[in-house]
Amino acid sequence: MAAIVQAQVEKPFTSSRNKMGCVKDLAESTSIPSKYNYFNTQNQEDGIDEVIADEQIPIIDFSLLNSGIPDQRAKVIQDLGKACQDWGFFMLINHGVPESLMERMLAVCQDFFNQTEEVKLKCAEEHVLAPIRYGTSFNPSVDKVFFWRDFLRVWVHPQFFSPPKPADFSEIAMEYSQRTRQVVRELLKGISESLGLEECYIEKAMEFDSCFQILVANLYPPCPQPELAMGFPPHSDLGLLTLLIQNQNGLQVNHNGKWVNVHASPNTILVNTADHLERLSNGKYKSVLHRAIVNNKTTRISLVETHGPCPDKVVTPVAELVENETYPAVYPGMTYKEEMFSRLSNRLAGKSHLDPVQT
Length: 359
Hints:
Pfam families: 2OG-FeII_Oxy, DIOX_N. It is a single chain. The chain is α+β, with helices and mostly antiparallel strands. The chain has helices spanning 15-18, 43-46, 70-86, 99-113, 117-120, 169-194, 201-205, 275-280, 336-345, and strands at 4-6, 51-52, 59-61, 89-93, 132-136, 150-157, 160-162, 212-220, 232-235, 241-246, 251-255, 258-261, 269-273, 290-292, 300-308, 314-315, 334-335. The protein has one domain: B-lactam Antibiotic, Isopenicillin N Synthase, Chain (Jelly Rolls, Sandwich), CATH 2.60.120.330. Strand 11 (251-255) and strand 12 form a beta hairpin. It has an eight-stranded mixed sheet. The radius of gyration is 20 Å and the shape is globular. The chain is built from nine helices and 17 strands.
């Protein structure tokens, strides 16, 4: 079992931590500060399109990946590949993670954000790669406009970390991260086969036993002017696959240039393909742009887990998916840890970090 490391050292409050602020404290305001006015400063830059409210996202039945009936398994692998290629996003059902555990995980994240600012600020590390980091927006030191979001980011594999409070956070988060890591392992087997590779190809090539798994809890409190603010702007995720659960809707996915509202059913997990799967598949499976919107009535909690390769693994297109001049390798290699540091240190800007090699 992984070691549990908790941030239990009492830290003095630096002036920068005291000035950080959080959107939770602004929820009772009648208007938002100008630095949160996203749509007057970013709308044209991010190319916001109209929302398609009712388009159905793909649904994958996880239980069929382990089906003893060959035709069922072949069909779900085909569906999985199509979802990764056409959408980069799908809803996972019959995933085997207990619904009670998912509910406990969301509840303990809510408990974290409900603590006093003094307690939370003890996790407000300034380094972007700190294993436990509480903050607001994305990277306030470089953000041109702030996002209506507070967050807690915790490394949970290969070494497990946990904030010291709430007291039951570590136990619940460890169980949840272990269960979801097994889900991702099985999904990667199916994705490998859908790419025409051996079942365990991605698992072995990405050294999944040492995978870099990060848990991010996002708090989106009621916003007095939701038409002006953005919870989290259009972006794709680092890693191979991202799993998301939430207590209510607010996620939108960009599909064919339009924003689609994601209406998750109870006891489902939302999954999206991430940047390193796009890199590994040589662009056959695209990471998907998505964003979080806010409302003026209720608090939304989302729990995101990114599953990446071994931190020191250099990810390049799979040789079997590169065919000389017909399908040349289009992405450069970089270690996962280097890319993560680069991404978290800069302003969030869609998928600009995943530019192909110019030939």
